[in-house]
C-alpha cells in the first residue's frame, strides 16, 4: 500500500566506530586476606613528646666547657661526648690565644685521673690521645709537668703507664713520626695509606662491628707496640748481616734495578725535627733526674714508682723511644746518652740475674734494658762513632759483655751461634708484631752483642787507649 511504501527501511542495532567495553571479573582471590592495622606503629613512637630527648648535649667548644663536662660523671652522654672530642678541641685551640695554656695543667690532671664508670668504648685510647694533644700544645711546659706528675702524683699503675705512653708518643709525633700504634685492634690507621705489618687481611676478619665484639682484647699498650716495631726496625739490618755469614758475602748477591727503585721510593723526605732541640731538657732529664732521686729514697718511701717492674720497663722504653725520636742531631745527645746509660747500668743488675726464673714483669724489664742499649748504640753511632768510643768506651765494652751473658743464658744459643740464629729468625719474625718474650730477649741481646762487636772491631785502637787510661 501507499503507507507501507512510505515506511523507513529497518536499521541495524550494530554501531560502527570505537567501542567501550566493560569487563567484569567475578573470580576474586578470596584467599588473600588483608592485615589489620596494628594498634601502635613503632614509627610513631618517636613522635611521643614524653620519649623525645630535647636536651641532647653538644660537643664543648671551649676548654672550660670541656673541663666541666669531663667532671660530670652523672651524665653519660655529656661525659662521653667530652672525652671523644677532647683531643680535637685541644688541637684546634692550640696556638690561638691562651685558652689552652691557661688551663692545660688543670685539664691534664683531670684527664689522667679519669675513671671509666660508664665503660666507654675506646676509653684508654681517647684518654691517651687527649694527653698527647696536651703535651703537643706546649712541650717545654707540659712534658716536664707530666714527668713530675708520674713520680709525685697519686695515681694508679695504669694511669702512670698512660702518662709514660703519652710522653713517648708525643715525642715521636713532635719529631715527625706517625703514631699508627694507637689503634688497639691492630688495623691500619685512617691517616696512614700504608697498612702496618700486623694489619690482618680483610677476608680473614669479621665486619668492623662484629670484630670489635668478638675479637680478643689487645692488652698491649701503644708504647709497647711502638717499641716492638722500632726494635724490629733496628734489628733488621743486623739480622741481615748475620744471615750473610750463612749465605755468603754481599758481593755475590744481586738486586734488581726495580727493587732499588722501590727502596728509594720508600725513603721519606728530610724534615725538620722539632723534638731535637728540646728532647733533653723537656723529656729525658726530668724523668732520669727524678728516677735517681726516688731510687735513692726508695727504701724510705712507702710507694715509689721505681720499685714497680712494670713501671720501670715502661720508663726505660719511653726514654729509648724519646732518644730515637730526637735522633743523632739532638744538641744534648751526649748528655742524654750519659743519663740513659747510667739508668741502664743502675737497673740492669736485678733484671739480668733474676729474669730467667722471675715473672713476666722482670723479663719485661730485661727486654726494655736491651732495647735501650740497642737504641743508644744505633743513635750514637749514626751521630759520631768516634765520639762514642772516646766518650763511652767503657760503657760500650761493658754493654757488650753483659749482652753476651744474656745471649748465653736465654734460648737461641750463645756467641756466634746466637747471631746466626737471629739471622735465621728474621724471616719468621718479619710478619709478627710480638713473639715469645724469651725469643725477643735473645734477639735483642744478640743484636746488642753484634753491634758492640762491630764498634769494637772498627775502633779497636781507640778503645785500647781508652781502656788503658782507665
UniProtKB/TrEMBL annotation:
Domain Telomere length regulation protein conserved: start-end pairs: 60-171
Low complexity bias (residue ranges): 187-207
GO biological process, one term: 'de novo' cotranslational protein folding
Biased composition (Acidic residues): 23-32
InterPro entries listed in its UniProt record: TEL2_C_sf, TEL2_Regulation, Telomere_length_regulation_dom
Residues making up the signal peptide according to the UniProt record: none
GO MF terms, alphabetically ordered: Hsp90 protein binding; telomeric DNA binding
One Pfam short name: Telomere_reg-2
An example Gene Ontology CC term for this record: cytosol
Start and end residues of each stretch annotated as Disordered: 1-55, 178-207
Similarity comment: family membership: Belongs to the TEL2 family.
Protein name: Telomere length regulation protein conserved domain-containing protein
Species of the source: Cryomyces minteri
